[in-house]
Design a protein that fits this description.
2 copies of one chain form a homodimer. With 191 residues, chain A is an alpha+beta fold. Helices cover 45% and strands 24% of the residues of chain A. The structure holds a DNA duplex (30 and 30 nucleotides).
Chain lengths: 191, 191
DNA sequence: CCTGTCCATTAACAATTGATAAAAAGCAAC
DNA sequence: GTTGCTTTTTATCAATTGTTAATGGACAGG
């Protein structure tokens, strides 16, 4: 069996264990993809019909504000699941960008196919809903941080959530995630 | 027919039109609820198994930060749909509070029942997914604002999104939504 | 009417964060 | 290594936002 599929199984079971049978229903539709550092593998207003598992590397989701700056929404690291298709897609088009911050390896599955599997299989439906909830909770958690913590406390929180990430990716991406300038980030780091 | 059910039909069709037949499947499970100003009708870590339509009044979703302050996550106004059950519930328990900021009237439907309707009926499934996406887009939009706009611009954005709300609810709830103190909000308002 | 409470405003000062520019450090291509 | 390019740090000053405390208004209950 392709070893990346085994990787996907581990990722799924880490989030919400499913039976071997349920996994087999998913497995046969999995495909492998890889992108070079710097590539936007999902782009705003472009069609995209996949769910993704992060096998290797780091990526960010982001949007561009009126001033033209890339504002990081979230980071995704090795052995995790990308934001579900349903919430990053409106009218068949992506509502945000996803950029590879290092070389990345992904497993993908057609989103319509996965939706069908969710409908016909209770375990897969539960798994999908857990992913959705985790993504949402993470958003609410970040929102609360942005609304009620100082920049320094947000940085500390970022370090707890994404251990090791601070030295692997451009600080500009972290600064916009924290809602500060990269100069301010550098100042906070010195402490 | 109970007139509040007609209200619900209008709210649904405003978001994502469905057929008369699909609405009838929902209609028979609708119930009416009302709460007095100040009531928490959903509480953190308490069980809740309903989807809600806002018929009358204003409410906020919020969390309490370590300092004990209520941090507003979002506002919900008349003729809109509350954040879907699946994203405000983890392990059967609510992951945030919802408080009535005025007297409110709601229509509710059992969430498991609604999930079943989503599975068996394509129109209802589409409707449910549109609600989910709208909620998410609204969150991303707010996140971008918190991360990249000044407090003044966030206030302007709030005014555009929630016309008229500024004079109807306590400013403390608005300030924490904007991520500033109520003193700062008062200062910005003077301009 | 008076009282107490809650909420919004104002003021003065402190702390945080931003803007700009210059210097230093990394890093890839040659 | 050297050259360019980008990223990070540092410094200075300005602007924004927070903190604390005092003031005044709105309003319900007596």
């Amino acid at each position: 069996m392709d070893s990346f599929k085994n990787n996907v199984k581990n990722i799924i079971n880490e989030v919400c264990p499913i039976s071997e049978l349920a996994f087999e229903a998913i497995e046969k539709y999995l495909e492998f993809e890889s992108y070079a550092k710097g590539a936007d593998f999902i782009s705003l207003n472009k069609e995209n019909d996949k769910e993704y598992f992060m096998l290797k590397g780091i990526c960010k989701s982001y949007l561009i504000n009126p001033e033209g700056d890339e504002i990081t929404i979230s980071f995704y690291v090795e052995n995790s699941i990308l934001s579900p298709h349903s919430i990053r897609t409106s009218n068949m088009k992506a509502n945000q960008y996803f950029k590879a911050l290092t070389n990345v390896e992904l497993a993908s599955i057609n989103a319509s196919k996965f939706e069908a599997l969710m409908i016909e299989n209770l375990e897969i439906r539960n798994f999908g809903n857990v992913v959705l909830q985790k993504e949402l909770l993470s958003k609410v958690d970040k929102e609360i941080g942005l609304a009620s913590l100082s920049a320094k406390d947000r940085l500390l929180k970022f370090r707890r959530k994404y251990k090791m990430l601070e030295n692997l990716i451009p600080h500009g991406a972290i600064a916009s995630y924290l809602g500060i300038t990269n100069v301010s980030l550098s100042r906070l780091r010195k402490e």
